[in-house]
């Protein structure tokens, strides 16, 4: 399965009471597909504030996303947790909603061994028939899904891709030895072009909420062999790649969306909205 080159990890829109704003889900999806040119969307990932969504909210949000996307892009649902049994139970529910793939994060807090990580992902993969994308984000989970473990997992038939926030050394090792057809995506916006240069298929992005078109152009330049133009665009976009993570995500990108007239509300505790000073900094990125 090809999820395209640019995947947006979609924010969850909230209202003033920080309840999911169901009326804003369809306009947000349309905007990300039509205006920002997302090839796929991750629903209920880190950027979607999955840790503070209830299972009921997640199921409804995923169901609506599949319906509203109407086949115009792939829908990848985040269903992972640090409990293998719960991950399996929830993944089986989500599979029935018609998603194209599941995004399974490395178990956080538990600090499992590499063998524990392998057995966790293997158990989840064997419990569903839908495609699975691994998600390695050591800065949030406290554990790195090593290249060697990812390579082992790539030989399980329905584990088809990984979103890896590690450096290009790890990405390169995975690309060298993973199963044929296994797709590697960078999960770090600022690493998008370097990741493409070592053979990654694309980027799973936060910045693409507001500069998706430009990121698609950067990818297109690179794939067409216009390396200088791709590099120039990467350098131009780099302040945004870095700036939207100046404070904990997704507060900055929600503020950036508001500046564009796309209202997705605030963030749930323990996250907080950007301060006035932080908001001014984010605005300066787009002047």
TrEMBL record:
Q: Write down the InterPro entries for this protein, in alphabetical order.
A: Aldolase_TIM, DapA, DapA-like, Schiff_base-form_aldolases_CS
Highest taxon in the source lineage: Bacteria
Location(s) in or outside the cell: Cytoplasm
Protein residues bound to pyruvate: 47, 204
- SUPFAM superfamilies attached here? Aldolase
Q: Which residues form the active site?
A: 135, 163
The record's EC number reads 4.3.3.7
**Family, similarity comment:** Belongs to the DapA family.
Q: How does it assemble?
A: Homotetramer; dimer of dimers.
* Protein name (database record): 4-hydroxy-tetrahydrodipicolinate synthase
Q: What is the gene called?
A: dapA
